[in-house]
Amino acid sequence: MSSPNPEAEWFGFRHVQAQEKTGLVHNVFASVAGRYDLMNDLMSGGLHRLWKDRLVSMMNPKPGQTLLDVAGGTGDIALRLYKKTKGKAAITVCDINPAMIEQGRAKMIDQGLLSGITWVTGNAEDLPIASRSVDLYSIAFGLRNVTHIDKALSEAVRVLKPGGRFFCLEFSPGVANQIKPLYDRYCLSILPLLGQWVAQDRDSYQYLAESIQKFPLQVQLGNRMEKAGLSKVQWLNLTGGIAVLHWGWKI
Fold first, then answer.
1. Smaller CB count within 10 Å for the chain: N or C?
2. How many domains would you assign to the chain?
3. What is the pLDDT of residues 149-206, one digit of tens each?
């Protein structure tokens, strides 16, 4: 019988015990935190900025709402949420890795934002957030690094208010057939080289590239969202399915 969370047994293409994976992923992001934003620009040709803009546009946050961005350590989504709501929403960033949070705090200081965003260290599978307290939950390029995706989805449902919405932006192996061979070659051959040249860390970017291939396909993730308790689940392919935006409601 297959595992209900098959990704828990894989660190990229390397088979591991589930209890090992969280620590291994933690080490990856501790290693790459300082160059994470730069590498995002290089790896995506800047497209990640457009994808994140689309995410926040779809979220359509309003002043007065409570917003939670999970695995958002460097603050890209939080900064967009802050600007969209003119600093009048309660924004919390939760990330498991203190090094990533440090980068996010520094980014906000560079932007002149000294308040308005709360930073919390925590695991997406066991959020230090009160139940039924969040209007909008977002996780961008973080869900594929979670050990047990279903636990993270259940936690999202727990913290959302009735009528609250869940949004996930993630890379996908389910890209359009026309570009899949080239995309797979780019992920598995070029990205690790970029990691080696720019971040002096080939192994971490080898994992990040391989983790894309292990992530559920669009319909699979949609089904798992529904099983976790989300309703009206939909998804939108961006750039030929290289990135995918999933969303759903807590009814």
1. N
2. 1
3. 999 999 999 999 999 999 999 999 999 999 999 999 998 999 889 888 877 889 988 9
Q: Give the residue among 111, 180, 83 at the shortest CA–CA distance from 103.
A: 111
CATH number of the domain where residue 201 is located: 3.40.50.150
Residue 183 maps to a domain: yes
pTM for the predicted model, two decimal places: 0.94
Write out the residue range of the structural domain in which residue 110 sits.
Answer: 6-249
CA 86 to chain centre: 23
Cα gap 77→92, rounded to integer Å: 11
- Judge whether 216 lies within some domain: yes
What is the secondary structure of 1-26 as a DSSP string? ---SSGGGGEETTEE--HHHHHHHHH
